[in-house]
Amino acid sequence: MRLVEDNDISVLTMRRLAAELGTAVTAIYWHVGNRDALLDLLVDRLLEDMGAVPVTGRTPRARIASIARQWRQRLWEHPHLIAVAHERGKTAAMFVPMQAQLATELALLDIRGDGAATAIGALQFHIAASVVMERTASRGPDSGVTEPSAWPASYTDTTLVRRLSSPVDYSAVFDLGLEALLDRLLG
Amino acid sequence: MRLVEDNDISVLTMRRLAAELGTAVTAIYWHVGNRDALLDLLVDRLLEDMGAVPVTGRTPRARIASIARQWRQRLWEHPHLIAVAHERGKTAAMFVPMQAQLATELALLDIRGDGAATAIGALQFHIAASVVMERTASRGPDSGVTEPSAWPASYTDTTLVRRLSSPVDYSAVFDLGLEALLDRLLG
DNA sequence: ACCTGAACACCGTTCAAGT
DNA sequence: ACCTGAACACCGTTCAAGT
Q1: CB distance from B54 to chain A under 8 Å?
Q2: Is B94 exposed, middle or buried (0-12, 13-18, 19+ CB in 10 A)?
Q3: What is the tens place of the pLDDT at every residue in B40-88?
Q4: How far does the CA of A14 sit from the C1' of C5, in Å?
């Protein structure tokens, strides 16, 4: 986990890990099977640490927004591990404690059943997407920036072109999307 | 491109490509430099094919929604190549023609400058996220599903639990998020 | 029960040598 | 100008052999 957390999944090779542990590569195979199984164990360990999050706010809406922001922040503390979990199809499992917290708040607003499932799904998607997109963008040079030269010269909205050619503010995009969802979901 | 499109980026190895081309591996290096450069060329070729999209609808709002849906559909036709572009930090470059189309429609609603940039950024994020998340989920078995057993037995909202433990309908999540964004952005 | 080294089939990349 | 084979430093994985 330290290896992945500090760097990237790419540094977690069986040979490198063996060197770090001071054993032969093949000893790892006896214990965990193979690399895929090792990654699954890694994700399981990550999932264990995913408990409920502290909630603030008085109205249910404020509390739901707080839960969403807290989760985004928490996931962002382990972006590389999140990426592994996401790749292994364990995104939803990661979110179970959040689902329960949201369900409680939604029930206070008399939103249950299908409506609650839709709301939770949309919020979960928004949070996971925000982390995944920002993480990918944070590697590589052009990260999410549009070349101004790509625009037709006839385009006179210089403010717009300048804004689109500067780095994306993912926090702002996240908050905008979150508020938009809450408006729609909570009525 | 065929290799990546039909399978996955992982099958595009220098040696496999060389075999496909009937040359020695090293010939590729003379032409393109190395694997990274090859992937960049791949992305550039993809970007060339990204022109404007046909728009339908009478009101600007309907037209904007149509543009967003069309782009999601177009990107979904090349999910593996999109993944490569995203990984290489070329997501925004891919969207330039869409940005221009949206700018035109937004101007009709008197949304320009910072407001237009915010709107375009939010819509672009939503579309790209939808494709990236759905693609990742579509590989691996548990794809986005919550184990019902993970819920406390005390939980009585069986409709909610059942919905959360069945596969995510990404189209529905996309449409919900899109409508929410349009409500907020277009007033 | 747990660990080892050797071996196999793969990678990306470099470089001197060919035509 | 363009292609080749050999070589290097990496991978994941298997398996017989050790203690």
Answers
A1: no
A2: buried
A3: 999 999 999 899 999 999 999 999 999 999 999 999 999 899 989 988 8
A4: 16
The token pair that represents A115 in the structure block: 């409506």
The answer to whether the CB atoms of B121 and A164 lie below 8 A apart is yes
Confidence of residue B27 (pLDDT cuts 50, 70, 90): very high
Q: Which nucleotides of C are covered by protein (CB under 7 A)?
A: 2-6, 10-16
> Virtual CA dihedral for B10, B11, B15, B16, nearest 10 degrees?
180
* Of residues A88, A83, A82, the one with CA closest to residue A36: A88
Rounded-to-integer distance, Cα B3 and Cα B17, Å = 8
What is the per-residue pLDDT across A50-99, written as a single tens digit (0 to 9) for each?
Answer: 999 999 999 999 999 999 999 999 999 998 998 899 888 888 889 999 99
Please give the single-letter amino acid code of residue B112: R
Helix A79-87 to helix A60-76 angle (10° resolution) is: 90
Pick from B92, B156, B102: nearest CA to B128: B92
User: Residue B48's CB: how many other CB atoms inside 10 A?
Assistant: 8
Three-state secondary structure call for residue B131: helix
Residues 6+ apart with CB under 8 A from A34: none
Q: Rounded to two decimals, what is the model's pTM?
A: 0.92
Contact flag A163-B137 (C-beta cutoff 8 Å): no
For B39, the token pair is 């992937």
- Spatial neighbors of B139 by CB under 8 A, at least 6 apart, are A89
Per-residue exposure over A82-113, b if at least 16 CB sit within 10 Å of its own CB, e if not? bbbbbbbbbbbbbbbbbbebbbebbeebebee
Q: How many CB atoms lie within 10 A of CB B150?
A: 16
Torsion angle defined by CA atoms of residues B106, B110, B116 and B122, in that order, rounded to the nearest 10 degrees: -60
What's the pLDDT tens digit per position in B82-105? 989 988 888 888 999 999 999 999
Tokens 């101004």: give the residue: A148
pLDDT at B105: 96
Contacts of B86 in chain A (CB under 8 A): 136
